[in-house]
User: Fold this.
Amino acid sequence: MTIRERVHGVLGYYDGILNGVADFHGHPHAFELHGDLDDEVLTYRLAPISPETMSQFEEAWGIWLRWEQHPPNTCDSTTIAALPQDRSRYAVLKPILDAALKVPADSLLLARGEFVQRPDADPQHDGGWAMDVEWTCVGPDSHHIVNG
Assistant:
């Protein structure tokens, strides 16, 4: 069974989507690549997230989108992906989200993911990150809706 869901944001990208937050059966889930980007079909582990985590993620994602629209002239490994006025709040949110969005390695909720650009994407606002994902369930628990 394939379902098309909204991607709320991408946290990691390297020649393909590594992790982020997307709906699965209509509820927000963290997702992480399970396997390798060289695999013919990409499979992701998923875990439901709480409404509080989702709210914090949306705030952090908004901070990152604002920074992406006005990046500094130079970036290195110490650059914080936040504009000066957002840095203190981002510094609070980042460690919380790093922990809350970590998908357990033993998660049995697995799905193949194919990411597609949303037709209603607004490049000025979304920076090219307005996507949907087509999930194809593959894990034994993938057909159960679990609220976080």
About this structure: Confidence is low (pLDDT under 50) at residues 144-148. The longest strand covers residues 2-13. Residues 46 and 146 are 11 Å apart (CA to CA). The beta strands are 2-13, 17-24, 27-34, 43-48, 110-117, 131-137.
